[in-house]
From TrEMBL:
Record protein name field: DegT/DnrJ/EryC1/StrS aminotransferase family protein
Keywords: Pyridoxal phosphate
GO molecular function, one term: transaminase activity
Biological process annotations from GO: polysaccharide biosynthetic process
Keyword Phosphoprotein tagged: no
Similarity remark: Belongs to the DegT/DnrJ/EryC1 family.
Keyword Transmembrane helix part of the UniProt annotation: no
SUPFAM superfamilies: PLP-dependent transferases
């Protein structure tokens, strides 16, 4: 009953209908229209272009964080690179000794600004600079996160972005280069991909609609569709692999013009402020819950993707939240086979226990209150 009475709390933002069909020509925030930036369909495709510009060749080595989603490894593997891994500290920055070891025979390194919370890369930058290898900043989670007053990532040799994770867009990512230039010209992304992603966003909007009848209609449509696809296909792919793999057909695919229009119409300051406000509200509400350890507090430059918390009984909480139609992000369920997990028990633990609570801009005060209520009831049970 609860499920029907309350609108679901979605883990990702959804667009209003007017945003989906807006034709804004406003400029994009810096640096996304600067000459050093190129727009791509996703961060993975941007990363592929970075690999080409940085002239990384098959057989060379690249140092990467062991705490990873998995999808960011695939462009390097596709390019024939060897991977070495480094540990990440409790402050979510590269652990210096481990980083030093990982870059020993490497031709490049990448470090991640997790969950839109700027990482301290000063030690990693110095070490990469001393070894004269480029440092790529993975800013896939960190759109609108800042260093001083500017977008984070711009001091790295290259930075990749994934707009669609923060803003509800059919696709979109970027590559920023401190020096050098992309030679490839972006091509249009496959129209079916953009149609599918747009339908998915529309569905998310309808499932979160304030009018219950709209939600019920979309729920029914989804159930029918699932029934049809589950009988039509049995897949041999591992779970979540579709989110991880690097699709060959997307190499060189630029950001769709429809996504660019929606992005232009976005109120960037509102997105950042809403995310920061919701983070603070959840942080205050969850303080003192037994078995909850926030992974970070909110620094000045942060534009959080989630409120990341290590939860002792993460699986139990995810189940309880799902039963009440509250969506959270499991960070991250996929253990990529390239990472020597036995050497990285902390990162493994994080992948098992971390939950990303939604803080996005589409949440109303009522949604946040319901999320808090469900978590608190569960914690008392
Ligand atoms: C840390 C990190 N980097 C890069 C990516 C790839 O982003 P995209 O899906 O836009 O290719 C992801 C995807 O989830 C990620 O979590």
């Amino acid at each position: 009953m609860e499920r029907l009475a309350n609108r679901p709390v979605a883990s990702m933002p959804w667009p209003s209908l007017s945003a989906l069909f807006a034709r804004s020509t406003r400029s994009l925030p810096y640096p996304f229209e600067a000459p050093q930036t190129t727009l791509w369909t996703s961060a993975r495709i941007a990363l592929w272009e970075a690999i080409q510009v940085l002239d990384l060749r098959p057989g060379q080595r690249v140092a990467l964080p062991a705490f990873c989603c998995g999808s960011e490894l695939e462009p390097f593997l596709k390019a024939g690179l060897e991977l070495s891994f480094f540990a990440v500290g409790d402050d979510l920055s590269p652990e210096p000794n481990s980083f030093r070891e990982a870059i020993e025979n490497a031709s490049a390194a990448m470090a991640t600004h997790y969950f839109g919370l700027p990482a301290d890369l000063s030690a990693a930058r110095d070490m990469a600079w001393q070894r004269k290898i480029p440092l790529i900043e993975d800013c896939a989670h960190a759109l609108y996160a800042t260093e001083g007053a500017t977008q984070i990532g711009l001091s790295g040799d290259a930075a990749i972005f994934s707009f669609w994770k923060t803003v509800p867009l059919p696709d979109g990512g970027a590559l920023h280069l401190r020096a050098g230039a992309v030679r490839a010209r972006p091509k249009s992304p496959p129209p079916e991909l953009i149609r599918h992603a747009t339908r998915h966003l529309l569905s998310r909007s309808m499932r979160s609609h304030s009018v219950g009848a709209v939600r019920a209609l979309e729920d029914m449509r989804q159930r029918l569709r699932r029934k049809k696809t589950s009988t039509a296909s049995g897949t041999a792919e591992p779970e979540n692999w579709h989110l991880i793999k690097f699709p060959d057909e997307l190499i060189r695919a630029g950001m769709a013009s429809s996504s660019q229009r929606i992005f232009r119409g976005t109120d960037h300051a509102f997105v950042r402020e809403s995310r920061r406000r919701h983070f603070r509200e959840l942080e205050a509400a969850f303080a003192g819950i037994r078995g909850f350890t926030p992974m970070s507090s909110l620094g000045e430059g942060a534009c959080p993707l989630y409120f990341p918390v290590l939860v002792d009984d993460a699986a139990g909480l995810r189940k309880a939240l799902a039963a009440e139609a509250v969506g959270v992000k499991h960070i991250w369920p996929y253990f990529h086979s390239s990472v020597p997990w036995s050497r990285f028990p902390r990162e493994r633990h994080w992948k098992e226990k971390a939950i990303g609570f939604p803080v996005h801009q589409s949440l109303s005060d009522g949604d946040v209150a319901r999320l808090i209520d469900v978590v608190k009831r569960w914690s008392r049970s």
